[in-house]
Write a sequence for this structure.
DNA sequence: AATGAATGAGCATTCATTCAT
DNA sequence: TATGAATGAATGCTCATTCAT
């Protein structure tokens, strides 16, 4: 039922690349539509591609979902770790943290309806781990490569703490998306999340 | 698309009540099974009841899911608000908060696999709001009936803060369940959540 | 599939009669409603009677339909033949014919929606002969007991002619009902049908 | 409830056309069979086609019925109007009328059992208007394009008259089919209908 | 007699996937 | 490579009818 390989064949030619892109874009659009119409045939049709071609590049329906999820969420993870691993001297810890949170919010912000549908679709197809994995990886990354405190010491963060902190933040963001909350764009929302994030670092005291 | 009424007819005879219970129990078991076998026919069969009987009490498939969700999660919400609204003199704020968190964790704790599957099924069937609603109601409840601070003043909690706080806690719990994390039973987990919860009350400073 | 006996048991007690009446009335009402909700359970419920009781008096669903059809259409046939067989001297043939047509129209006129639904239901349940039979019987009746012409001779009407004449008239009425035509109440409509009926008698020239 | 579009997709390949034909032919045969077995699965099976293929070309069960009805009755309407609109000089009015009636009868004549079942099926599925529509259109056509009288004047036919005339004729034909009457093939039957039809034209006197 | 809970065969429809062209 | 016709297992749901109470 689960597809381990995302792509059936690596598309080499320009034409093939265009097809894959069209398929993913079509998938995103249909997801955005919101009606329960996310079928392989519908995706192919919207992509202007035959259903046969679709199956040339994706072994099954889930593969499309996974590919789309990776595309949509990859920025997110890297943006956060990038922000956190910045080592420019002038950059205060507080500021770096805020930037990371901001990157995270922005990552989740765009194409909100698509993301909501994507999350639902992933879960509906038994691929919820596909959602938690990147979060966990980011967390591991942060833990092993944590930003130094002003004192220069590396904070010792317990696994539980890390778990709760990451899930709390991502869970809040996910809830905001799923409930189509208008908070998500506001500065107060960012403030609250930053405050939440401090929990992570303050726990080492 | 959505089923507003959970039950089609109120069961009067003992026989009927037994049927409804059997159906819900069968639903829980099948969900627990984890295969994508949650079909009305499968539920009826496992309940030892005909498909017709099933539909005598539930207007459609979703209604079963909703009824099960309410049964499984109702304790949760009320347990929390009960804990929070305790006004025994000797009971410190900290203690009350901890009790509320504990109630929440315990509500989510039992039958973990069933709950995970239930959550997935609710989302897969477009009923994700059924998950957020009780949380939101609890939040409203807390907001309008907040525990007094030691000083005797009622803390003014902004909506954003309340939103973030509730979603952070529930999001963490949900993640713990979905990832089948072993943290969920540990005291440290509870500690971390309590610390998180303080964020809500401390925001009025 | 077809029910030859309309009633399972002849209701003797007042209570039983009331039940039967209630059931037929409920059936008529539901038919009138027009939504495809004509189910035995729905009829029983509307009649304020249990489904078991319904089956005490009607062997199957079709029996209800047939009983209702006979009740609704019996007047029609007899009214026509009554009109046609009047032998009062002062009554001109033309006048008698008009009265017969009028009786027919009036028979079809009331409870138009119910009749339409009844016709549809009868056909849908393979009971279309239940509709044609009374017409045919009336025709036989007329043929063997035709009104005398002014000259005192009995007109010789060929079977084909009788067939066409009766079907033309009833067919027109039925169409008017099925199409919910507003013509059905107008005097011109009556005039036209009378003219049509003359075909029958004039054919013997 | 009603299917406005008869076809879901227009068949392009020869294979597809063959499928559609097979489905319609199978539908006709099953209808002819007379058992209440007109199910989509039965049609597909008899057509030697998978149920999926059936639904590729027909949006729902009713669409099959409608398509079949149009195929079976289309000739009818056009044949009549063709006959009526003939303007060859040598052709008398009487003759043209007779030809029209003959076309109508022939249209209804063939495959009598299929037609009976088709009519029943249309009505049973709430598509009775599908039966009256072509008649009404033909009537409108005749009204606006009536054959000239010998005198050269265009007869003014009142709507009621047209209604009664068309319904009388079609109603008679329908009755003949539904009752499986043997009259339908006889010359006398045609004569009677022609006489009936004269009613329409003679009404302008 | 009346009740109403239970039954289950049966049906319309969907959609991921294949494969001949 | 691309196409799209074909597949068919699978599913949600209805409703006439029975029978224990």
């Amino acid at each position: 039922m689960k597809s381990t390989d995302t792509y059936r064949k690596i598309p080499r030619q320009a034409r093939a690349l265009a097809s894959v892109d069209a398929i993913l874009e079509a998938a995103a659009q249909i997801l955005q539509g919101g009606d329960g119409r996310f079928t392989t045939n519908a995706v192919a049709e919207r992509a202007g591609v035959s259903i046969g071609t679709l199956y040339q590049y994706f072994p099954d329906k889930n593969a499309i979902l996974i590919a789309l999820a990776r595309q949509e969420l990859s920025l997110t993870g890297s943006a956060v770790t990038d922000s956190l691993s910045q080592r420019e001297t002038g950059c205060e810890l507080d500021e770096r943290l805020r930037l990371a949170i901001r990157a995270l919010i922005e990552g989740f912000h765009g194409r909100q309806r698509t993301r909501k549908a994507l999350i639902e679709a992933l879960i509906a197809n038994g691929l919820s781990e596909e959602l938690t994995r990147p979060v966990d990886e980011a967390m591991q990354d942060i833990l092993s490569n944590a930003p130094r405190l002003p004192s220069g010491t590396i904070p010792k963060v317990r696994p539980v703490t890390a778990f709760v902190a990451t899930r709390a933040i991502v869970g809040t963001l996910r809830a905001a998306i799923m409930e189509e909350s208008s908070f998500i764009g506001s500065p107060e929302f960012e403030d609250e999340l930053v405050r939440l994030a401090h929990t992570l670092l303050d726990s080492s005291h």
